[in-house]
Amino acid sequence: MEHFKKSELIYTLFNNATEGIVLADAKGIISLVNPAAALMFGYNPNDLIGQAIETLVPDQLRKKHVGNREQFQGQTQSRPMGVGIDLFARAKDARLIPVEISLSPIIINGERYTVAFIIDITVRKEIERSVLEKQSELERVAQALIATNEGLEKKVNDRTKVLQEAIRELEKSRSDLSAALEKEKDLNDLKSRFISMASHEFRTPLTTILSSAGLIAEYNEGETHADRRLKHLDRIRNAVNNLNDILSDFLSLSKLEEGKIRAEYTEFVLSDLVREVIGDLQVNTKAGQQIVYTHKGRERVVLDPKLLKNILINLVSNAIKFSPEQKNIRVNTEAFDLTIRLEVADEGIGISEEDQKHLFERFYRGKNAFNIQGTGLGLNIVGNYVDLLKGHISLASQLDAGTTIKITFPHLIS
């Protein structure tokens, strides 16, 4: 390194940098432009020197940019531009280029200058757009599947074709999705969980549907094979219901992300709602399982009954799913003037301390639950619903001893 003068090293770095670098004085006049910046905007470097920095700003934003630039002159620290918004720069041919820009104030020979470091993010924006299109496409497929859920026996073959197409679309889009997610480190873990869940949770019910449908076709009409046909029809119904649950979780997550779900408070009888949910879920219990319900305090409460019902369905369904036969599930509610409490407890397989730290993350499933059907989205959705209701959720669990989930909501009584 001692063979190079500092000025030579700086000159080399400036001219060979892959990101654009533009130096402007306090009046916004461009003093230096590196080759990467000139190439990005379609200029020769000397064409930009002496021009106002607004030459590179979209026409409709130039006037506002002058004020922003003058305001920045008082800054003493580097900062990124346009946090939370999309930035565009204007090329020589009037094209608008999506960019990321970082600004650094410097002083040279007593004069104040600003260095702008500019990155062309056109490729990244194209990848993001492609990912959003794929997500929209998958949502449309999911909505189509749910809409055609009625008349199951007559439409099994058609539904199977649609599901197979959905799987092909997932496989096709996986490589594109992976390429985009690899550029965002924080989403790598999410991608792996999603692919693992989709591969297992979609393929297993589809295999059941296809094999049962094939066996039904082999049985002749008549009473001899009636029991076998009914058995395989039940397998098909259960498999499609599992798929319907998965798709419902996806749609709930999508609506939450889009802000389409809001808390709508109304007065209702808390114990009636809980008993209704328990009655609906009783048919899903295993042999010897009972759902035991107790209530204390006020009967009428003010809360969002729809969100509370969805929370309760998810928690009780999990308790049934992860508990063995002959084990009871306890549901307790308490309603007072300032708080409403909900507790769901089971005597099931439990959750390890390591898994408890990640349990409310998307697509996360405990290590002892991989052989049990599920998406890993349920508790994440519950957590979002609890947040919408300004509530607090806590979990206590021990392996092979059961799990207790407690939720406390503020009671917004009139």
Can you characterise this structure?
The chain is built from 12 helices and 13 strands. It is of the alpha+beta class. The chain folds into 3 domains: 6-120, PAS domain (Beta-Lactamase); 123-257; 266-410, Heat Shock Protein 90 (2-Layer Sandwich). The strands form 3 sheets. Strands 1, 2, 3, 4, 5 and 6 form a 6-stranded antiparallel beta sheet that branches. It has a 5-stranded mixed beta sheet with strand order 8-10-11-13-12, with helices on one face.
For this structure, what is the CATH class of the largest domain? Answer: Alpha Beta
Annotated CATH homologous superfamily of the largest domain? Histidine kinase-like ATPase, C-terminal domain
Q: How many E-type strands?
A: 13
**Run of helices and strands:** HEEHHHEEEEHHHHEHEEHEEHHEE
Any idea how many domains? 3
* Spans where pLDDT lies below 50 across 5 or more residues: 185-203
| Principal-axis shape | elongated
Largest sheet: 6 strands, antiparallel
The fraction of residues assigned to DSSP E strands is: 15-25%
Write down the Rg: 30 Å
Oligomer: single chain
- Determine the N-to-C terminus distance: 75 Å
Task: Count the DSSP helices.
Answer: 12
Average pLDDT rating: 76
Binned, the helix content reads: 40-55%
SS class: alpha+beta
CATH topology of the largest domain: Heat Shock Protein 90
Architecture of the largest domain, CATH level 2?
2-Layer Sandwich
